[in-house]
Amino acid sequence: MRFWKYIVFLVLTFIILPISVWAATGKITVTSASQVVEKNKVTVTVTLSSSVGIGSWEMALKYDKAYLQLTSSTAEAGGTGMVGASSSDSGIKKQTYTFVFRTLKKGSTTVSVTGYEAYAASDMSEMNLTATSKTIKIITQEELEASYSKDNNLASLAIEGSSLTPDFSKDILEYSTIVSEDTKEITITAKASDSKSSVVGDGKHEVTSGTNTFEIIVKAENGSEKTYRVIVEVKDANPINVLLGDNNYTVVKLKENMPGAPSYQETTINIEGFDVPAYTSEFTHLTLVGLKDSLGNINLYIYDNGKYTIYNEIGFNKVTIYPLNTNESLDGYTKQDVVINDIKVTGYKYNNDSRFIIIYGINIDTGEKDFYLYDTKNQSLTIYNNEYINELVKQNQMYTYIIFGFIGILILLIITIIILIRKKKVKKDKPNKKV
After folding, report:
1. Which has more confidence, 401 or 282?
2. Which domain holds residue 45?
């Protein structure tokens, strides 16, 4: 009797056990950003997946309407219900839905699925499903900004093939190094201590003889900045030093380091026994050389028997002039200093509100010295034609004479009318004589 009970138990085990062991399985995953600022959008994705084919499914999204407002959905009718069936006999292995919410207020809320079930495509048996949920933390903009990193330090700073003085420290902001005179380019490597910070100013840089200054700016996640400075001295065995005021300069000796001067011809001149690159012009009769300041900036200067004067051009609409000083005066205009393209020049203005400035200078392309009219609104430069102005003055004078003439005639007419009225009145008031 016990033997048959044992046989029945084994048969039932082999019949029932495969049903539970071999039932298809699947999972439902809910994903989204973990932290969102209030009044902003957040996207929630629901994914149903299985290693075997899914024939049909049904589930619904559950969320707290006090914290989230549904704005769009890829589910049926744009809602939260997710119902579907595969058109393929083998089913599908993944189905994804996307929901976009607007966050309503600060706090923590959970998004999950409910009422879920799915059936295998092979035999329409119910699948064993597991489901996850997602908790979203909603914060204010102020809380977000307060959480930003303030770290604007460098973790390392170096120049390839050269050593910096002093040794690097995140709190030391200025460094220097000396490189050989044949060095044309350096590479600065810099790494921020915080991966959320950005670094500007590293990489390859051209250098010229003398002092070259480079700034490396580290910007923290919260926007605060720190500037590191690297001074690279390209060794010049025999520099030509120039002192202008309180500032020190060196003469540029290499042609490739000279700024461009399209309207000038290239040449060389001798300064303190060295042939240095220069520019000349048959129109301006100026000689230009390059001077480099302590920060490595190179500008053109007028060279005249050991004297240096900054050279500034003003160019608009294909007209380029070099401003000159003049003692001439213009009727109706006031002579004053004005700034054009960050260049201070002496000009003439009709009044402080005038959009036009008259400048005296020489056209570097033609050598023509004259007054030029600069339009501050249109940023154009043309030769000043006073013929038109003189014609306007003549016309204004003529109009003035005409107006005064009309006024005189009007006054005479009024006087005549008054006299006639009085005579008529006197004649009327005079008594008649008896005969």
Report:
1. 282
2. 22-145
